[in-house]
């Protein structure tokens, strides 16, 4: 029987992916310069296969439609990923090529054990059979270990018990947007007028109550939907024009943004920022969550994310990078970014955690979950309500996946989520998992001693040992150190490989197919996070619920861009991520384009172009 590598991603044909593919090929060709003859041709053949099957794993250009050296060279998160090239040379970290070539090797060796060896020999590479070698070396000790494991239901007698699940669902946007759709149209899928009306009513109610208690504010007048939309646009502009303080927009320095400043006065913006609310008052219920002030907005986003997009078969549960562009943060730390008053605002430790379920084919965030970290927070979503973080993260995983149908989805996760009871629970619902295991961070309930201590005999680099219980496999794989994986999605008999470049040559490190897939998908998400953090709203208020609100709005804008990239509108007008953000701000503020009038955003009606208060003037 032939074992094929899982169809992680379909080939892309758009021009936006040609740049990363060419960079992979150029880097690989340079690395193979010392090679000659048949060896060179066979390895280049593997590289071309990798380009066809895995070019979408090179996230930087493909998702955000941008090119340039910064797409692959800046802030590469794979440097800390043990499954990618770990050479001292900085060029080893470019473009995700290691994961791509590893996928090609796995595909070339995707048959049975004999066919895998033949394919590897044809490619000038060599596969070892660490399972068979380890069994021979262990002898009687191996038999005793197998007997011990058998008492708990775990066995070292491996079988192909976990064929890769067949995917019966579909992937892509659920709404067919026209070619004439604007960035504001995609934004409104997640922040519709109905949600804006709630913000308007709650903001006005809070302003009235505040003035009843502390006295009238003569500079305040009630906000409407058009002005609330413009208020969001002003803050969203800090995602593409970073500034330490949002008030720098009205300044005359480097961070001033005159095109945004003329659309709303600073005085009016400060009033809206002061009174802005999604939920103004606590109800009589005592069991409200700690984030009740922003919960309706989060619930609305969760529903709209699920309604607008169907994810791919492979998805990742993780905590995304939720800070701004690292380059901007470094400038702030060195004194290059000052607030309007000339002082740098100190970053406070976040009091909440954000988890997401993210499509590993497109980067679309399908579901979000926020929990509080601080002591004394009310609600069942606080860490204090659980005995350990693994219990909390297990609940987070269940909430993130509770609406997934039994369509053969495969979920990748980190050690704080990985646990045998959770994987078995998900498998009963038709959801398969693959996760990194840590004796310190994971819930090790039901796992054998090997999960805590490792194999009795040290493993050489590239070797692995495995135990199986039902359809679940426990893998211990040695790279520079020992890594443990738990999976019910991949067979322990299927081989994969990680390719690293060292000294101008390609070097193969054998691994189970589950390890190869984990590295590919997590590497994709890491690269997405690197790029995603550059387009985060840089306004950071002090109140936790406001931090969560602007964070969630940033996620919504990134998701809107992904839907735009997958729609006919992208073929009609190709915006990069920065251009998309700028056009969105222009449409929310109704700022005319340089070559013509601005396209009205949906639902604005005949609202005036300026949102300034009557009789007010723009701040200098």
Automatic annotation (TrEMBL):
Pfam families: DDE_Tnp_1_7 (PF13843). GO terms for molecular function: transposase activity. GO terms for biological process: non-replicative DNA transposition. Residues 1-22, 58-96, 593-620 are annotated as: Disordered. Residues 63-73 have a biased composition (Acidic residues). Transmembrane segments: none annotated. Residues 74-89 have a biased composition (Low complexity). InterPro entries: PGBD, PGBD5. PANTHER family: PIGGYBAC TRANSPOSABLE ELEMENT-DERIVED PROTEIN 5. This is PiggyBac transposable element-derived protein 5 isoform X2.
């Amino acid at each position: 029987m032939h074992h094929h590598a899982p169809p992680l991603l379909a080939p892309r044909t758009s021009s936006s992916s040609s740049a990363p593919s060419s960079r992979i090929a150029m880097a690989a060709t340079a690395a193979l310069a010392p090679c000659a003859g048949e060896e060179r041709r066979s390895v280049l053949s593997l590289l071309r296969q990798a380009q066809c099957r895995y070019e979408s794993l090179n996230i930087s250009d493909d998702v955000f439609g941008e090119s340039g050296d910064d797409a692959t060279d800046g802030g590469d998160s794979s440097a800390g990923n043990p499954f990618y090239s770990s050479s001292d040379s900085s060029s080893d970290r470019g473009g995700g090529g290691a994961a791509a070539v590893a996928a090609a090797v796995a595909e070339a060796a995707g048959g049975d054990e004999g066919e895998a060896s033949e394919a590897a020999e044809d490619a000038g590479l060599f596969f070892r059979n660490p399972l068979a070698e380890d069994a021979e070396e262990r002898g009687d000790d191996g038999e005793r270990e197998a007997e011990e494991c058998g008492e708990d239901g775990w066995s070292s007698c491996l079988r192909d018990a976990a064929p890769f699940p067949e995917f019966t669902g579909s992937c892509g946007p659920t709404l067919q947007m026209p070619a004439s759709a604007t960035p504001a149209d995609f934004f409104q899928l997640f922040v519709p007028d109905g949600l804006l009306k709630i913000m308007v009513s709650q903001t006005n109610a809070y302003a009235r109550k505040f003035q009843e208690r502390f006295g009238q504010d003569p500079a305040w007048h009630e906000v409407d939907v058009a002005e609330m939309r413009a208020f969001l646009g002003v803050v969203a502009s800090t995602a593409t024009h970073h500034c330490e303080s949002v008030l720098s927009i009205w300044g005359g320095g480097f961070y001033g943004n005159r095109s945004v400043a003329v659309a709303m006065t600073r005085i009016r913006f400060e009033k809206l920022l002061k009174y802005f609310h999604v939920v103004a008052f606590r109800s009589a219920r005592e069991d409200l969550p700690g984030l009740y002030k922003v919960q309706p907005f989060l619930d609305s986003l969760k529903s709209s994310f699920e309604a607008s997009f169907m994810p791919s078969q492979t998805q990742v549960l993780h905590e995304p990078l939720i800070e701004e562009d690292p380059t901007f943060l470094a400038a702030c730390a060195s004194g290059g970014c000052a607030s309007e008053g000339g002082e740098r605002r100190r970053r406070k430790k976040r009091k909440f955690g954000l988890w997401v379920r993210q499509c590993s084919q497109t980067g679309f965030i399908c579901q979000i979950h926020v929990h509080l970290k601080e002591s004394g927070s009310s609600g069942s979503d606080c860490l204090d309500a659980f005995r350990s973080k693994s219990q909390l993260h297990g609940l987070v995983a269940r909430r993130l996946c509770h609406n997934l149908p039994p369509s053969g989805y495969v979920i990748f996760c980190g050690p704080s989520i990985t646990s045998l009871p959770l994987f078995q629970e998900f498998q009963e619902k038709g959801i398969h998992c693959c996760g990194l295991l840590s004796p310190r961070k994971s819930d090790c309930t039901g796992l054998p001693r090997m999960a805590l201590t490792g194999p009795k005999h040290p493993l050489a680099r590239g070797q692995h040992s495995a135990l199986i219980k039902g359809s679940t496999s426990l893998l211990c794989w040695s790279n520079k150190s020992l890594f443990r994986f738990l999976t019910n999605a991949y067979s322990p008999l299927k081989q994969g490989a990680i390719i690293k470049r060292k000294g101008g040559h390609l070097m193969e490190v054998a691994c189970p197919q589950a390890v190869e897939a984990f590295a590919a998908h997590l590497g994709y998400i890491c690269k997405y996070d690197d790029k995603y953090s550059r387009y985060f709203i840089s306004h950071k208020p002090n109140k936790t619920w406001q931090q969560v609100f602007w964070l969630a709005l940033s996620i919504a804008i990134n998701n809107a861009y992904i839907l735009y990239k997958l729609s006919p509108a992208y073929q009609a007008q190709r915006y990069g991520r920065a251009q998309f953000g700028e056009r969105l701000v222009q449409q929310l503020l109704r700022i005319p384009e340089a070559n013509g009038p601005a396209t009205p955003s949906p639902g604005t009606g005949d609202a005036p172009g300026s949102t300034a208060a009557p009789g007010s003037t723009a701040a200098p």
